[in-house]
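Key idea: predict the complex, not the pieces.
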Amino acid sequence: MRRWDIFCAVVDNYGDIGTCWRLAQQLADEHDADVRLWVDNLDAFARLCPSVSPLFSRQRLESIEIRQWPSDFPVVEVADVVIEAFACELPATYIAAMTERSEAPVWINLEYLTAEDWVEDCHLLPSLQSRLPLKKYFFFPGFTSRTGGLLRERDLLARRAAFDASAEAEFWREVGLPRIDDELRISLFCYDNASVFELLECWSAGNTAIRVMAAPGAATDQIASWFRDALLPGAVLRRGSLTVNAMPFLPQSDYDKLLWACDLNFVRGEDSFVRAQWAQQPFVWQIYPQSENAHVVKLDSFLRRYLEKFSHADVVRALWHAWNGAGDVGAAWKEYIANWRPILEHGKLWASELDRAGNLANNLIRFVSEK
Amino acid sequence: MLASVAARHFRDRQADPLIRQSNWTSAMSVKIAGELQSGNVIIVDNVPVIVLKAQYNKSGRNAAVVKLRMKNLMTNRISESVVKADDKLEGVMLEKKECTYSYYAPPAHVFVDSEFNQYEIDAESIADLEKYLVADMTDVCEVTFYEGRPISVVLPKIIIREVEYTEPVVRGDTSGKITKTAVLKDTKHELQVTQFVEIGDKIEIDTETGEFRRRCT
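Result:
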């Protein structure tokens, strides 16, 4: 059994640790790997996975060893495979230990997901280590067979398929919000976003009954500001055609069900972005904003792939652009909802195409076994 | 095996104080990966390699990375690699001379210095520059030597070339396109230029980015 060390520095929010935790679970559950996950922020991890305690610097969850990544890094045995997630800097003492290992570990920099073409040329290439007798490889998740693919549990598609109308009804009963005919249910998970207010205006003034399931944090904060009211988990606010339910922070497995059950999902960052695609429902992505609009190229690269074979591409693109700060979100929404039926079908078709890129954990295992 | 022999050879050369004083290698330097360009020589696994192509990529939250196509100067083996743009690499300062491009003599390009000495450089090593090379051009290039052998060329940052063909501007065009394709005279290289560039115009090109800068007046 190979031993794996995964290093995760939580830059902000939950995408970094969300992705690392999914990877750790898949390696352990589906590939019998012995995984140790180093995380520098256990508080963020505990919100995503309530079984994790921020109080213990060393704990075991399922078969995975979880370690607090301290600034004063301890002396530990180096694993066979070392993953530095999202180009985080490994501790110098750990790198020194890697160089002393009789057989050099397979060292991988797992990068952020992007749909840009250039990642195909860089995926799996070694990196230069001019001062170290080690090789590090760049591993790029992506949407084509020339990239690392996307994280997906072996049984995810089967679980999604089993989530039929009765399972969905059961889910809403558990949430305490049985389905109401002709009501559009939307999950909302976002960063600070100036377009939220205009969209809320549009939804409240529209003819369609809309229920927003708002994630705690930036989404509920901005909605509360718009309503000029408090919005704590469990609270409900109404204006016109719009009803907002403030959700508690959901563990990953429950969040998946919310994505499956909602008609439309607003997601952000990387982890929820990927899960929304596997959910096979229409979704709108708020990309992590960068200075000088560096994120726009990445957004448009994904849209180019996502909408390549879709006849109503302009409608989807307009809403995504507006949601990311470029355009009139109210006007874009009206066009979007007017073309709802084909957009709904497109979500299913896209998910079936995604699977051709292969599963990231499987691709990673295959690459490591060849080294 | 060959690589390790070459590496030992290079280390021995570096360790020899007499050789270190010779002019073929003057000093080591630190190179930031994001600043690498074709023609730079860096040390990889104790062996000098020349950068044939450096492609910078940055988007979203991804770390800026540079994809390098390199040639091992000991074995001539070509390899590819990726580095973070802020990685520090060991560079080598080598002898350099100002030369002008003369002509192509397959499989090499011939450059000439001010004393009319001719230097042949393997075309593959400077394939990235061929789109700008015109026989007897006057641009002053910087040729780098390794053990007396010319190994790379850096063109001036800005060069001027003539446009052989580009589509005329269509009056009233409302397509919103702000650039169009232009074909350079002699090399037939295509690049994007602004709409007002016309056939026969001379234009400035940035050789580091490959981008059009402006039309010459």
